[in-house]
Amino acid sequence: MPNPIPSDYPRVNIALAVDGAAEAIDFYKEVFQATERMHIDAPGGKVAHSELQIGDSLIMVADEYPEMGFRGPKAVGGSPVTITVYMEDADAAYQVALGRGAKSLMPMADQFYGDRSGQFEDPWGHRWGVSSHIEDISPEELARRSSEMMAKGSPAES
Are 33 and 46 in contact (CB under 8 A)? Predict the structure, then answer.
């Protein structure tokens, strides 16, 4: 009997519906240094299924299929989800994304919790965070910084 959890897949995977999957795949390859490990074309030049490897994670990307309820964020009024990717150089990834048409949601900044992070919305409406861990913080120091930040009323900056 095969393993119910395939050995070459992470336990949790996400699937993105994109109106223009081929262009989005190129965007994700450039911004996140993703490698495409599977690609299945559909009639009419659409992408039926693709799998992008980003480090030890996997993102599945396909064109929208409204008839199957598979619609992208722009078709449903935006995304309530932000996907965060840890990067060796989050600043560079953020700049590449903006250069490829992403909209800045939160500029890159050092955060109170020890990461340097920023957020953007890609041209297809998916929200992304990019982070690089820059400082190990003890639980006590994290609690102190969190309280200080909450007193200021700004969760984005330390």
Answer: no
pLDDT in tens, 107-122: 999 999 999 999 999 9
**Same domain, residue pair 100 and 125:** yes
- Please give the tally of structural domains in the chain: 2
Which residues on adjacent β-strands are paired with residue 49? 40
Residue finishing a domain among 53, 71, 89: 71
104 to each of 120, 123, 125, 130, how far by Cα in Å?
4, 11, 12, 12
Residue 148 three-state SS: helix
* Longest Cα separation, the chain: 57
Assess contact for 53 and 33: CB atoms under 8 A. Answer: no
**Are the C-beta atoms of residues 90 and 110 closer than 8 Å to each other?**
no
Domain that holds residue 108: 80-158
Are 137 and 156 in a shared domain? yes
Whether the pTM exceeds 0.85: the reply is yes
- The CA–CA distances, whole Å, from 84 to 2, 39, 94, 120, 145 equal 32, 23, 12, 10, 22
